[in-house]
Each structure stands twice: as C-alpha cells, then as structure tokens.
Design goal:
Chains A, B: This is Transcriptional regulator, MarR family. 2 copies of one chain form a homodimer. Chain A is elongated. The first copy, chain A, starts with a helix and ends with a helix. In chain A, a hairpin with a 7-residue loop joins strand 1 and strand 2. The first copy, chain A, has a two-stranded antiparallel ribbon. The first copy, chain A, contains 7 helices and 2 strands; from the N terminus they run H-H-H-H-H-E-E-H-H. The first copy, chain A, is mainly α and 152 residues long. The first copy, chain A, has 2 domains: 41 residues, no CATH class; 79 residues, Winged helix-like DNA-binding domain superfamily/Winged helix DNA-binding domain (Arc Repressor Mutant, subunit A, Orthogonal Bundle). Helix content of chain A is 61%, strand content 7%. Chains A and B meet through helix 2, helix 6 and helix 7 of A and helix 2, helix 6 and helix 7 of B. Chain A binds a DNA duplex (30 and 30 nucleotides) through helix 3 and helix 5.
Chain lengths: 152, 152
Amino acid sequence: MKIEEVIKSTVPMDNSKKIILNVLYTQNVITDNFNEILKPYEISGEQYNVLRILRGQKGCPANMCVIQERMLAKTSNTTRLVDKLLLKDLVTRKVCPENRRKIEVTITQKGLDVLLELDPKVIAHEQHFSKNLDADEIIQLNSLLEKYRNQN
Amino acid sequence: MKIEEVIKSTVPMDNSKKIILNVLYTQNVITDNFNEILKPYEISGEQYNVLRILRGQKGCPANMCVIQERMLAKTSNTTRLVDKLLLKDLVTRKVCPENRRKIEVTITQKGLDVLLELDPKVIAHEQHFSKNLDADEIIQLNSLLEKYRNQN
DNA sequence: GTTTTTTATTTGTATATACAAATGTGTTGT
DNA sequence: ACAACACATTTGTATATACAAATAAAAAAC
C-alpha cells in the first residue's frame, strides 16, 4: 500500500515528506507484527530487546549503562524494563561489589529458555518482510537508510 | 553511522535483521529531531499530527473516526489527544447534531496560527535528512519501503 | 415497537517514551 | 579530610501506545 493510501491523502506530497511517513509507518507495521509474536509470552518488544542484550553478554552480567547504550531507543528507561523482567524471573539483579554504584543484571535460565523458544519465530519475522525484496534491494535499502539519517 | 555501531554489535548480522533495526532506529532519529522542533510550542508529535489532519479538512469538522484513520499509528487514542489540544484552545469539540454519536472536532484560529508558524520549520525538517540523498535515491528509498512492508 | 446488532466514542489499565530531578557512590583537587 | 565534581542509577511526572471493556446512540431485525 502506498503511503498516500495509508493516510488517505488526496493532495500530492513531496518525496522528502513521503520518506518520513514511510519510515514511521513501516516501523509501525514491523513492531505491530513483532508484538503479535511476543504476545503469548507476555513480554514487550523492549523487554525482549533487553533479554537479547543480556544473552549477548554470554554469562557476563551487564550493568544499566551497557544495556542502555545497546538499545535502539537510547532514552528508554532501563531500570523499569529490568524491574518488569525481574518480576517474571527472566533476569537477576545485584549490586556490583567492585563499584557499588553499578548494578549487575544477568539473564536467568528461564530467560534463556524463552529466547530459545522465540528464536525461530524471530528469524521468520525478520525474513517475512525481506521476502518482498531481492538480495540487491535488501542491501540497497540498508545503505539508503544509513545514508539518509546522517546528521551533518 | 552504520547500524552495528549504533547498537555496538560485534558479531556479523543478517541483512534482513539489519533492515528491521535500520527502520526502527531511523524512526527514532527522525522523531527525536522533530520533537526538538515542537518543544518550544509544547505540543507533541501526535498532537501536531492531529492538527495537520484538522487543517486538511479546510473548515469542515472531522469526527474521531476520520482523524483516527488518517493517523499513522492507527491505534493511538484520539479522544485523549483531542483532550490535550482542547486544553490549549487549539481545537473545539461539539456533538454532531445529525448523528449524536459523532463528535465534530475543528481546529481554532489559534491552532492554525501555530501550524503556520511551524510550517517552514517542518519543511526544513523534512528536507534535512533528504539532503543526504539525490533525487533518484529519494524515489528509490520510498519505493523500497513501500515494497518491503507489503503483507502477503 | 421492542430487542438485537452495529457504530462511534470514551474509559481503564498496563507498558513505554521523554525528560528532569533526586539519590547514592566514587574520584579529584586542595 | 573535606568539598566539589562526575558517574550510575532511580524516581517522578507527563505523554503516548496497546488493547479490552464500557457507554451511548443509531440502524436493523423480528
């Protein structure tokens, strides 16, 4: 569906404006789709994101700063996301003995199990939309987006 | 900045996954940038969006359904967005006499004035990122995004 | 003409985003 | 040692998203 149809616009629109709307709308479509996958597991997209970061630590605990800087949304509130994961026993949290300002967050076995079960569904999700493009177009879309968002 | 640097990823990543992250991150960059513009006016991006839809009505009032279906985020809560705009006297709201289930929302002169002041800044914002691409690339990015998100 | 269904909107609850202020700990300068 | 500063995290407040349930009016069915 073209972006004009999505917002039921009748007047012609500048291509620069179209990019903005297309990026915002595509993000909505992707996350709606992903939320459907996560729904049965009762974790949100951001919570999933935190779990993935923790698994990437391969056993080492991650403190709040590390989690924060690996998240896409740099302003999201890591403390409260970790709170929610704690309640579900998907992570543990303890004060770092070397530096008591820091908090060591580790994914639990239960957390790892949830991720393992989700892995094939997440891969299918990633490829679901990409199937609409050929290999060249996929590379091109990535490079156009990276080029587009450069701040100068 | 390439997406791997953004999330400080060291392991190689599938291109399909990269698109997801690139779209999500680009959306964050765009909206952060746009929020900066809106900040002095004390309206949010979604509130701005509603005002734009109302101006597009050219004098005719819009009911909640119409606003909803023209918004990018189809699940956002129009009632509460309009509430906020009402408090700032940027819109008016009255029950439709022909069909008392419907609510007629109209932009006020104050609302139109705010939009008019914002117009040049918004156009500059739209072109800010597009300047990184040439005319062909802009067209291509739009068509790749539209092709990408097709549900089959 | 009353019941049922559909349509339009509102309200409630949980989660997340955005941002500022507060808290507590470690480090540096004197 | 103590003040000043920097760092890591938490808390508070407003806004927005996501979704289900509630309300109210209009239209359809019988």
